[in-house]
Amino acid sequence: MGGAFTEVIALSWVNEISGRIDQEANSENVDWAKVLAHRPLLTADSVMGRTMPLYRDWLTHSTTGPYWDRLRFTPKDFAAIDIPTLTVTGWYDGGPTGFALLLAGTHGQRPAPGPTLPDGGSVATHRDVPGWIDQSG
């Protein structure tokens, strides 16, 4: 998580992916003030009405070490990608470090940074995808 923990993002994202179908409806009526004021953080998911093992797993691991290292990409990882890849990111998605590593290791990939839209897409996505698909096919 890059050393910074944003509780509302962690809880809302883990809530959405913690099921066989989209769980977004579970958070429609959440009292976020109550959730964010809850202590300890480890059980804040219960204030949302459910236990989310992934959220609790994140909080029980240090921000460095084997648990997170398996998800931390290096320039070597990006250099090993040898297929055309369109990477879409918003200005604030995943942090600038990950995007800089992607740029440093690319060959055949086309990063498309841009402002993130309310629907989670990127301005670059809507503008660049059709042309990129034509060029890479």
Describe what you observe in this structure.
The chain is mainly alpha-helical and 137 residues long. It has two domains: 63 residues, no CATH class; 62 residues, no CATH class. It is built from eight helices and two strands, in the order ααααααβαβα. A two-stranded parallel sheet has the order 1-2. The two termini are 34 Å apart. The mean pLDDT is 74.
Notable features of this structure?
137 residues, mainly alpha, 2 domains, two-stranded parallel ribbon, 8 helices, 2 strands, 45% helix, 9% strand
Instruction: Tell me about the largest β-sheet.
Output: 2 strands, parallel
Strand order of the largest sheet: 1-2
Cα(first) to Cα(last) distance is 34 Å
Low-confidence stretches: none
Shape: elongated
Strand content: 5-15%
Mean pLDDT: 74
Structural class: mainly alpha
Rg, Å, rounded = 18 Å
| Beta strand count | 2
Estimate the helix proportion, in percent. Answer: 40-55%
Tally of DSSP helical segments: 8
Topology order in helix (H) and strand (E) letters: HHHHHHEHEH
Whole-number tally of structural domains = 2
